[in-house]
Amino acid sequence: GGAVRLTSPAETAAVHPPDCHCNGGFKTRVEIKDYLRQFRGAELQAREWGEWLFTHRRIFPEYANDAYNVFDPDDMGVDWVGTGKARRPRETTIWVAMDPHDSFPDFLQFLSVDRAGDYNLLRELPEWDAGPHRGQYFDELNGGGCPPEETIRRLAAVVDDLKARNSLADWMGIDPHFSRKTYKPTGLTVVETFNKAIEDVAPWLPRFRTVVPDRDNEGEVVAGHKILNQMFACDRSRPLGKGNCPRWRDSRYCYNTIRARLNYRRKEDSGDDSKAASEEPEERFKHANDVSRYLMSMKPAFMIRDSAPDPREAWDMVQGQRPSAWAY
Questions:
Q1: 166, pLDDT greater than 80
Q2: What b-and-e string marks burial along 253-262, b requiring 16 or more CB atoms within 10 Å of the CB?
Q3: Residue 191 main-chain phi, psi, to 5 deg
Q4: SS3 241
Q5: How far apart are CA 293 and CA 250, in angstroms?
Q6: Rounded CA gap, 244 and 236, in Å?
């Protein structure tokens, strides 16, 4: 449980027994006080109450693990179907993007765009609360890549858990940089290898194609951060509701993504006043946020459909030609 700030004089001056857990956590007040003796000033306050010590390097400074930015699927309205983390809008188009890795599991996100144009991140892979990496945060994994075929099996399993085969977008996005490299076991590029794995494992899935990232005069990463900050924005002085709700919200089951949002920071400045402050993000929490950037660059929208598209025809319907990266 989270710490409870004791604000009234009566509470703070009260005599607490040594084994008191009034803070709502696992440690007693005596244990907490003993731990806090090593900190001073602003750092003491941050440790004691779970407040941010420094916000100047946070890339998403307004994002918080609260109802404004994070939703519980079971609290959503009658227009949603299913239960728990398998719950989704009844009418939706689900967009999938992936950041592939050779030494870590591939990171995927499943974004719902409903008829009203709201963006709800429903699921992620790997999952913290299920699967082979249960109980392990993505940023703490010590290597261990995943074969493309296994990634596709897990992707397909999430789609089926959401009962969303007929709700998928016409294509799935993949990192435009790493995906062009050669995957040595197959001799194909990474994107070609994943599309071949789809053919072999789940041919009903749409195919991957490389994302063309949004960019401005500061580059694609900074441009993507600006867009996401706009999507997360709201007025916290007003109640959450129609007219005051972020365009993009994350499901509470997307543990790795929420953790990455809260801890995503720019690299520390060099100390050289002649140079501009760094806009380059630290690597540790970059992956989930990169996938979100790619999703926004895909220009996700709600599409009316009665049945799942033929993945071999989807590109023809949208652009008039198939990309050479498809593994046919």
A1: yes
A2: bbbbbbbbbb
A3: -65, -40
A4: strand
A5: 14
A6: 9
Where does residue 268 fall: left (phi above 0), alpha (psi -120 to 50 degrees), or beta otherwise? Answer: beta
Angstrom CA distances, 14 to 17, 21, 24, 319, stand at 10, 14, 16, 69
What the block records as the tokens of 318 is 């949208």
**Residue-wise pLDDT tens digits, 46-88:** 566 555 555 568 999 999 999 999 999 999 999 999 999 999 9
Residue 214 neighbours by CB under 8 Å, 6+ apart: 220, 223, 224, 227, 293, 296, 297
pLDDT tens across 8-46, in order?
445 555 677 767 766 556 677 777 777 777 665 545 655
Angle formed at CA 120 by CA 298 and CA 196, multiple of 5 degrees: 45
Cis status, amide bond into 281, omega within 30 of 0: no
Parallel, antiparallel, or unpaired for β 182-183 and 188-189? antiparallel
E strand or H helix at 112: strand 107-114
